Amino acid sequence: MAKRRVHDGRSLLGGLYRRWRLEEAKARFSEMVRQARSGEPQVVTVHGQEAVVVVSADQFARLQGAGQPQSLHTFLSTSPLAQLEFDSPAEHAPVRDVQL
Q1: Is residue 72 part of a domain?
Q2: What percent of the chain lies above the pLDDT cut of 90?
Q3: Nearest to residue 19, comparing CAs of 56, 52, 41, 44?
Q4: End-to-end CA distance of the chain
Q5: What is the pLDDT of residue 82?
Q6: pTM score, two decimals?
Q7: How many CB atoms within 10 Å of residue 41?
Q8: CATH no. for residue 46?
Q9: Full 3-state SS string of 27-41
Q10: How confident is residue 26, by pLDDT bands cut at 50, 70 and 90?
């Protein structure tokens, strides 16, 4: 089966991916897995609509890691801007009295 674009409005993924009908994916599962492991996401359709995407474990781990929240401290300390030094003197403004 050749790669093709889906232009019928049902495509959620866009792009150029290998698409497999469910029956074909079941019959040629080893081939589909081999292609997914080589870095090409494989789209499985059910009744002509995209149902699942098969990706390599490495790709999946990268996708999972991208969504993991990190603490603000970790984010700021690993930032490329973490080593910047600011030379602006502290400004002291007068404090006004407030009645509560």
Answers
A1: no
A2: 41
A3: 44
A4: 77
A5: 75
A6: 0.56
A7: 15
A8: 3.40.1620.10
A9: HCHHHHHHHHHCCCC
A10: very high
Average pLDDT of the chain, as a whole number: 82
**Structural domain contains residue 3:** yes
Contacts of 77 (CB under 8 A, 6+ apart): none
Within 10 angstroms of residue 50's Cβ, the number of other Cβ atoms is 16
SS (H, E, C) the chain: CCCECCCCCCCCCCCCEEEEEHHHHHHCHHHHHHHHHCCCCEEEEECCEEEEEECCHHHHHHHHHHCCCCCHHHHHHCCCCCCCCCCCCCCCCCCCCCCC
Place of tokens 């002509």: 48
Q: How many domains does the chain have?
A: 1
User: Is 95 inside a domain boundary?
Assistant: no
Q: Give 41's pLDDT tier (boundaries 50, 70, 90).
A: very high
Taking the C-alpha atoms of residue 46 and residue 51, their distance in angstroms, rounded to an integer, is: 6
Which domain covers residue 52, as residue numbers? 1-58
Round to whole Å and give the CA distance between 45 and 58: 23
What is the C-alpha separation between 85 and 56, in angstroms, rounded?
A: 42
